[in-house]
Amino acid sequence: MLEQRLITEELMDDPALPADQYHALLGDLARVNRVTMAYRPTLAFLDRAMQGRDILRLLDVGFGQGDMLRQIARWAEKRGIRAELVGVDLNPRSADAAGAATPAGLPISYRTGDYADLHGQGWDVILSSLVAHHMSHEELVLFLRFMEAEARAGWFVNDLHRHGFAFMGFPLLATLARWHPIVRADGRTSIARSYRPGEWPALLAEAEIDGAEVQRVFPFRLCVSRVR
Q: What pLDDT was estimated at residue 170?
């Protein structure tokens, strides 16, 4: 059943979802990221992309609760990198949730809107986490072209790997962890909507991108990167 990518919507994307439920499920998604070591590949990419650089202007597309940006802020502080971190998300409730979870003083700003409106603003790095599978084929190709055109140091896509073991095992993990019911339901949907390694070369070719790397990362992450 996973041979073809599932094309459907997820419960968390329903605009009618009450704000308190949306904030709660974002909190549990941040816990999922911690349990599944989701920050590790993004931070490893930044170690490569930022070699010899001490200033970072970064755009995170689809920031959710902002947990990836908070990890990056701490990463930059430890390395003496002067960072300006910007998150953009289409859902206006994300900015409220992320702002409430972010300590004062971190160099992070959260914006509501379309990433495409933020072109020409001197980004060093553009990245996303658990966003690519939410996009249609056409939207993802446009996003890849945007990152390739706008990111001076490189770009990074951190997403899921459409894999049978992850699809069957996630409900058990989510139940044991007592994560939000929508996280439990959407988890399998997200895995079924995500890509496999062999599907990325055609996407990159359609976006006219050479030199990108497709990497499987334990557990069940599929990351695509370009370092200049």
A: 77
8 Å CB contact between 119 and 146: yes
Domain ranges of the chain: 11-227
Mean of pLDDT values over 134-148: 97
Residues paired with residue 111 on neighbouring β-strands, in sequence order: 88
Helices (H), the chain: 19-35, 39-49, 67-78, 92-101, 137-150, 164-177, 181-193, 200-206
pLDDT band at 125 (very low <50, low <70, confident <90, very high): very high
Map tokens 């993004």 to a residue. Answer: 42
* Span 47-54, average pLDDT: 96
In this prediction the pTM is 0.93
Which superfamily is assigned to 11-227 in CATH? Vaccinia Virus protein VP39 (3.40.50.150)
Of 141, 135, 190, 134, which Cα lies nearest the Cα of 161? 190
